[in-house]
Amino acid sequence: MLLLLGSVLMVSDKLEDDVRSLMRKRKGCMKSRGRGFDFNELARLCLLKSGDFSTIGGKVTVQMSDSQKQQCQATAVRLLGRREHSCRELRQKLQARDYAPQIIDEVVTELQGDNLLSDERFAESYVRSKVHKGIGPVRLRRELREHQIDAATIRRYLQDQQWRQLAEEVRQKRFGPALPDSFAERARQMRFLQYRGFDSDQINSAMKQE
User: Residue 11 and residue 115: Cα distance in Å, rounded?
Assistant: First the structure.
């Protein structure tokens, strides 16, 4: 099937919407790298590299095929259009859809090269979201390791947080401002904060009267 790219890339209505949404979300990152958006660049970022390109009258012609790689690329674009993913998480989702390992490797590598897939950006977004939900550093560190985020990146996004203050806010939101008046209640609140991912120093600080 022969498709023409003019002011709008005609891949399919659904994929076009997914790609344009993803481009809007990533536009700031691309600009920071000094990259523009001509037709060939847009086509390349739409992950249609396995197609054949030619220019006719200022339009880019793409020869599409129904390859598994293109299907895998389209799936990856849709997933990334919803939210940031770690490389490991995206691989797992593509594997669950039975794409071949070699194809997944190629797609993931291309996405990273186009700065559409980034463990760094994922870690920043993940920490921000979890802190907003009252999750502490111990649990966050464990979860980021499960995503195979490197230690330096984890440390960078965990070190600037006000963990003692967050632990106190989480305790008060769940149990109220008054401190527990019994050993049993104190232990219960401390277990809750531990479950949320705070360390002993942060928990003890949250259990003290200022």
Answer: 21
Report how far residue 24's alpha carbon sits from residue 28's, in angstroms, rounded to the nearest whole number.
8
The owner of tokens 């194809």 is 103
Q: What is the pLDDT of residues 154-203, one digit of tens each?
A: 999 999 899 999 999 999 999 999 999 999 999 999 999 999 999 999 99
Find, among 123, 150, 124, 143, the residue nearest to 197 by Cα.
143
Written as one letter, the residue type at 16 is E
Q: Which residues contact 196 (CB under 8 A, 6 or more apart)?
A: 134, 135, 136, 139, 167, 170
List the structure tokens of 13.
């209505």
Q: H-helix or E-strand containing 93?
A: helix 87-96
Question: In angstroms, what CA-CA distances link 84 with 6, 76, 117, 142?
Answer: 29, 11, 7, 18
Domains of the chain, with CATH numbers? 2-117 (no CATH), 120-158 (1.10.10), 163-206 (1.10.10)
Which residues are CB-contacts of 39 (< 8 A; sequence separation ≥ 6)? 5, 6, 9, 58, 59, 60
Q: What is the pTM of this model?
A: 0.69
Greatest alpha-carbon pair distance for the chain in Å reads 80
